[in-house]
Amino acid sequence: MATNTRHDKPTLATVARQAGVSAPTVSKVVNGRDDVAPETRARVLAALEQAGYQSPLQRRSAAEAATVVEVVIDFLDSAYTVEVLNGILRFAAGADVEILVSVTGQAPSSGISPEGRAQRMLDEGRAGMIVVTSAFSEAQLHAFRRRQIPVVVIDPLNPPPADVVSVGATNWAGGKAATEHLLALGHRHIAYIGGIERAECNQARLHGYMAALMAQGVPIEPHYIISGGRFRRDSGVAGFKALLKLEQLPTAIFAGSDSIALGVLSEAGRHGLRIPEDISLIGFDGTSQGQESVPALTSVAQPLEEMGRAALRSLLRQARGEVLDSHRVELATQVIVRGSTAPPAA
Amino acid sequence: MATNTRHDKPTLATVARQAGVSAPTVSKVVNGRDDVAPETRARVLAALEQAGYQSPLQRRSAAEAATVVEVVIDFLDSAYTVEVLNGILRFAAGADVEILVSVTGQAPSSGISPEGRAQRMLDEGRAGMIVVTSAFSEAQLHAFRRRQIPVVVIDPLNPPPADVVSVGATNWAGGKAATEHLLALGHRHIAYIGGIERAECNQARLHGYMAALMAQGVPIEPHYIISGGRFRRDSGVAGFKALLKLEQLPTAIFAGSDSIALGVLSEAGRHGLRIPEDISLIGFDGTSQGQESVPALTSVAQPLEEMGRAALRSLLRQARGEVLDSHRVELATQVIVRGSTAPPAA
DNA sequence: CTGAAAGCGCTTACAG
DNA sequence: CTGAAAGCGCTTACAG
Fold this sequence. Notes:
6-stranded parallel β-sheet; 3 domains; 13 helices; elongated
């Protein structure tokens, strides 16, 4: 009588038997090769999962190696990214997790293919990957999903596939609150200078802005909506220059990020316009840079460090095989009133 | 004719042949079993050594495990650290090196002992460690040296042992150049607001400042030297407050870092003093933050990204066993004149 | 796309 | 203490 030897460590052969395929086929799936029919792959993955199969290397890694999480960033030059990374690093320090950081620059796929990258992560026994505001394609994420490597994205530029866990902030509510703050001060001519146009978070902020205007019956003036920039300082400079060309300047500006707002601040100064006496200015992000400018920037704060922490926590849960409540975590934004907003000049 | 197949990777079988024993015997030696005669064991060990045998697991690690370098940072909250890290990450992206970042916070040795940390690095096959402006003790560095793990320190707070490679900038020359710039504008009452007092780089900047004054016969006024702070914004705020208490304000201020200078800038603004009309201000570091303030900050630029790159390059050389020209690399600083310095008011 | 067959590198069990 | 033999787990090459 063949008893179920459930206490033995699972091998390729046992998994193969369970999935009703041969050992070589299981081997291919484990190694991420693509010459396996999707339906077969699914069956094998299920069997691997159920048996809790680990390759000899993984067994070894799991036993003695530290938990390593990879963090992928496009650039490390914005206060936003730095604060998110800080949240990740601080949480990691207390959780005995090591963080491998890589910057991709312009080309997210430079050097190594997504498949190669995913396979390497598997081989090295990495616990998972956090992608910060990068444009990771569906195909790239697919390579990870196929190998069951946990991935969490923070504020992705393109909306991630439904089954990828993502962390963000309440961008729509934040955009609405920022605009309501300006409206409450008495402003009726409010411009929006946005970041990357197609980015989810930018869209949400812009629509929050429009929702606030509409709710109060303030007409939306299309020439006050400046888009097509990035979330950086130079977009604020360019955006303000564009506003200067209009017949009438707005009395207040909502910038899609603190960096953009700082660009506006500097460019306004160059034209002899005072903030907030001549124009009110509110940013988004609540970074320390905005806090330290003169005047200090009123801003919609995102809990950036908290977002980094939440991403790592969620990733570690996935890595432990826990089932998550939700594939989307949105943390609350909050308007921080400092020195750059005031009632409009009489 | 049995040719020497030196290009094939050594296996248990080849080593066994070389040692004149069977494969199982070599297996026992490799696995540290004790049922092997001492004389046989010695012969096998010699053969293993000579063949450069690695177990499949070791081979796998060595072959495809990317080179991993650990970077240790105290805090990731200054523009200085961020730019150095950026230099490291960018160079790493092009050099197929992975970077493990850890922040130590207040306690550089929190959680794990230096010995434990070093041993773990060895076990995990890490190529080496870069320490950024942290206070690593001699004892800590010793743990690494003993295991022959390469270490490079960037601008250490305490001078590192002579045999540890360090990367920095020409701080003394930079301090002198900053002060000469102010002297050339006509200033004779120049204050220095320093960072961490005992830090090597702070000492060098201060002495550069004094050297420039002495060279031009301008008396050094001790109450114009503010020390005991850190390299952060609040030290600039506190330092400027201290200057305000003096009978006579200086006409120019040399700040030990851009962050300190930004604190001065904001505090001066709060007291209705204009930069550079009322007081000239020069910072140190040349960070992008200083570039973006209003007015833009005149500063002594350190090539921060370049320093990060140089540190990583030097580390990789050490890891490859190359002999370095020097244990100390100092990159040149340069005064960047922007909007915060001007001749003194008449 | 699949798997029977061959093979690789290592380990185990045990006869001597 | 040693090693021939058997075996394990995985991968490769390739026929269908």
